[in-house]
Design goal:
The complex is a heterodimer of chains A (345) and B (202). With 345 residues, chain A is an alpha+beta fold. Helix content of chain A is 39%, strand content 14%. In chain B, strand 1 and strand 2 form a beta hairpin. The chains are: A alpha+beta (345), B mainly alpha (202). At the A-B interface, helix 1, helix 3 and helix 4 of A face helix 3, helix 4, helix 6, helix 7 and helix 8 of B.
């Protein structure tokens, strides 16, 4: 015989008519004699009636239309975006990836062995220190450069490939090749901004040379690196500049040195350096300007560069503290990268 | 030979017949199935989710699933059982989705819903219930609805399937993929929990 607790467990199923006949008879027999269970049955019935009476809602209008639209969308092939077009077909994706890899490798290789960049930085008017003796007026600068200028278009691509400098005999332009104007005096000078990747840039970094100071790259076609270096040192010394020579093999077709000097002397420095060794070369202390192989009779320097002479302007392979960013700078200085290209013997 | 159907024959076609025609490529048969069962699917979804928009989405997605897998349906159970299974599962997914976002679902039946046509009042179906049922649809119904929302999901599912959609225990067991005994005890406990909850408030 079931007690009230057992019967109450069956009341729900009793209301739903989910009991077997014997179970149903047992529940009804208990209910006939138990008022508590009757009350409980009534409460559950009320509850069920209430749940059944919960309002039925109409589905929204166009329910079927929307179902049809969703089915159509699901059946439709996915709309391809540009990435799908580019990357999805394997026959296109793989060659594209290979091509991209080749381009990246090419760029990296070019960064390590760059071609001289064609951009020429115009020589700027140099300001005299103290304003008293303006070194060169714009007109003078033009005249001086015009005298020395024999505009030559060098086939830089060919020159780079053959290792020959632009001062070589054959400077004929090549169709489609990159061209670079060269200022030719006793030697040849071309200036480029430092934006072009250079193998020296990596060296600069190794030497903790601040890249931010590097203003431009000057390609100098000279016959004797020592001569160019000596003249650079003399000129730098006269304007509180310094010269740093990058140690390289003497047999290398291209040598590099850095010159740090005040910004206002840059134009005059380049102009002076482009001239043949003259009186200014004679100013070199113990220099070997006389050993220079240059025989060109360029415009003699008239000592236009003035200023303090640096005592330690020559530091082979060592970066002076003043070339570093953390060194206190009395005046804004800039650094020229001078690449001296000597003709192959 | 062309088969000619009497207009009434189409209306009286069983769910199984409609399914067969669907499988044979008769698109109108599927439309008939949707029209026949859309209210059922929508109401079950709504009672489980208490959100008009989500209920619409769940009910429509249920029919989309049926359309896409109609070839796999072998007729082991009634079409309505299959439909309920899908609706309940989609509603569970939606419920979990809410839980992850900490959202509570509850809308008033007197409120409005946002549809593609803008904000429209919730439409309540024409009621053909008995007068005694009409009588209790008052504050008590609203109280009941509120307390049902507080029930655990498992309790709400069995109550909706039993009393809103009028499935028997065996059908509910099929939908929920559990035993009839489980359904029986779960319905009893759900009603007891609902009764207790309402009593506590009163």
């Amino acid at each position: 015989m079931k007690n009230c607790r057992d019967i109450r467990g069956d009341l729900s199923a009793y209301i739903d008519d989910e009991l077997t006949s014997p179970q149903r008879a047992e529940v009804e027999a208990h209910l006939a004699s138990c008022s508590d269970c009757q009350r409980e049955l009534l409460e559950i019935k009320t509850l069920v009636t209430g749940v059944v009476a919960l309002p039925k809602l109409q589905p929204p209008p166009r329910f079927l239309t929307e179902v049809r639209r969703k089915i159509a969308c699901a059946d439709k092939p996915e709309a391809l975006n540009w990435q799908d077009h580019v990357f999805r077909p394997l026959w296109l994706k793989v060659p594209l990836e290979v091509a991209a890899l080749v381009v990246i490798i090419g760029l990296v290789m070019r960064g390590e062995h760059p071609l001289p960049t064609p951009k020429v930085t115009p020589l700027k008017l140099a300001k005299a220190e103290g304003g008293e003796s303006a070194v060169l007026s714009e007109t003078e600068l033009k005249t001086a450069t015009a005298d020395n200028r024999k505009a030559t278009i060098a086939d830089q691509t060919a020159a780079g490939a053959s290792g020959m400098g632009a001062g070589g005999a054959d400077n004929r332009p090549t169709a489609g090749a990159r061209r670079i104007p060269v200022v030719r005096g006793s030697d040849e000078l071309a200036t480029t901004p430092p934006s072009a990747p250079s193998p020296v840039v990596g060296l600069i970094r190794n030497m903790e040379f601040p890249r931010s100071k590097l203003s431009e790259t000057v390609t100098f076609h000279g016959r004797d690196f020592d001569d160019v270096r000596n003249r650079a040192q003399q000129l730098a010394a006269r304007c509180s500049g310094r010269v740093v020579v990058v140690p390289q093999s003497k047999d290398a077709p291209e040598q590099t040195l850095f010159v740090e000097l005040p910004q206002e002397y840059v134009a005059a420095f380049k102009l002076e350096l482009s001239k043949a060794p003259g009186p200014s070369a004679a100013l070199a202390k113990g220099g070997n300007a006389g050993q220079s192989g240059s025989t060109n009779a360029g415009t003699p320097s008239v000592g236009v560069l003035t200023g303090k002479v640096a005592t330690n302007s020559i530091v082979d392979g060592v970066v002076p503290p003043s070339l570093r960013d953390d060194a206190p700078a009395a005046e804004p200085k800039t650094v020229l990268e001078i690449r001296v290209v000597t003709p192959a013997n | 030979m062309e088969r000619v159907l009497h207009p009434d024959a189409k209306a009286e076609a069983s769910d199984r017949e409609l399914l067969e025609r669907c499988r044979a490529g008769d698109e109108t048969a599927f439309d008939d199935l949707v029209l026949r069962h859309q209210q059922r699917a929508f109401n079950v979804a709504f009672q489980l989710l208490r959100d008009h928009e989500d209920a619409t989405e769940v009910a429509q997605d249920a029919f989309v699933r049926i359309y896409r897998s109609i070839g796999d349906f072998r007729g082991e159970c009634e079409f309505t059982t299959w439909l309920h299974q899908i609706v309940v599962n989609l509603a569970r997914n939606k419920h979990r989705w809410w839980k992850r976002r900490g959202r509570q679902a509850s809308v008033s039946l007197d409120g409005t819903v946002e549809t593609a046509d803008g904000e429209v009042p919730v439409q309540i179906a024409d009621n053909t219930d008995a007068p005694d049922v009409q009588a209790v649809r008052t504050e008590f119904v609203e109280l009941l609805r509120r307390h049902m929302n507080e029930l655990p999901r498992k309790f709400r599912e069995v109550l909706v399937l039993r009393n809103v959609d009028n499935l028997n225990y065996e059908q509910i067991a099929e939908v929920l993929e559990c035993s009839v005994g489980t359904v029986k005890s779960r319905i009893a406990r759900a009603r007891e929990a609902l009764r207790k909850s309402i009593k506590d408030e009163m």
